[in-house]
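Moderator note: this is an archived Q&A kept for reference. The question asked for a predicted structure of one protein chain; the sequence and the answer are reproduced below.
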Amino acid sequence: MGALVSRASRPARYTLVFHAEPQFVDTVKQAVFAAGAGRYPNYSECCWTATGTGQFRPVGAANPHTGAVGVLEKIPLEELRVELLCDSEETARKAVEALKRAHPYEEPSYAVYKLEDF
């Protein structure tokens, strides 16, 4: 049996969630995986993906990848929501930087959640 690790000694873990159209998801996933996201002790490139429909209205000086300023846009195809584990704050920050570089949207939709260990 492996050694027990105190919860207090483990670094904080985070979940990174992002949204993208299906044709862009693999490129973004590969970028965040390369930054260290999606790893468990004996696994790599782990994530969960679900489909949904996104909407947005570009305003002001926006330069949208899809749609036009002032027009409510509903993504015509399903959009994917991808969730990945980040094993530290540093990994989460690197993964977000990679996501922003790889994602085609002017303002990528993403969130980072700090996880509690119960």
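Archived answer notes: The chain has a mean pLDDT of 90.
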